[in-house]
């Protein structure tokens, strides 16, 4: 679901830097999801694919593997013109984002405890 060691390798152990990156990613994913759902309803598959591609890479790099996996499946479905599972995948993405939010919250609390 979330592997904080990937983020630490990327930006180091600084809690403030990790907090900034993780909060920004969750915020952007939460903002992108309704836009992706709207694009899906309007059959704007390239828009969905662009979001999926952008956030798949970002999610993978910071260790948000569940989000990266679902985003990769979304991107692939559109590339191969199999758009039927896209609404289900968007629902799965919503769940993955919720799981990421919980994992990020726990991780940030542990960072705060280690700083004290």
From TrEMBL:
Q: Which residues form the HPt domain?
A: 14-107
Q: Which residues carry this modification: Phosphohistidine?
A: 53
Please give the organism: Hydrogenophaga bisanensis
InterPro entries under this entry? HPT_dom_sf, Sig_transdc_His_kin_Hpt_dom
Does the record carry Hydrolase as a key word?
A: no
Its recorded name reads Hpt domain-containing protein
Keywords from UniProt, A to Z, are: Phosphoprotein, Two-component regulatory system
């Amino acid at each position: 679901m979330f592997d904080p060691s990937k983020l630490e390798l990327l930006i180091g152990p600084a809690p403030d830097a990790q907090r900034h990156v993780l909060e920004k990613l969750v915020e952007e994913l939460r903002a992108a999801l309704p836009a992706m759902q709207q694009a899906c309803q309007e059959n704007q598959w390239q828009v969905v694919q662009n979001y999926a591609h952008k956030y798949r890479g970002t999610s993978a790099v910071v260790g948000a593997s569940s989000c990266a996996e679902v985003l990769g499946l979304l991107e692939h479905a559109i590339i191969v013109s199999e758009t039927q599972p896209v609404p289900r995948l968007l629902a799965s993405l919503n769940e993955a984002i919720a799981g990421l939010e919980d994992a990020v919250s726990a991780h940030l609390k542990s960072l705060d405890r280690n700083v004290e």
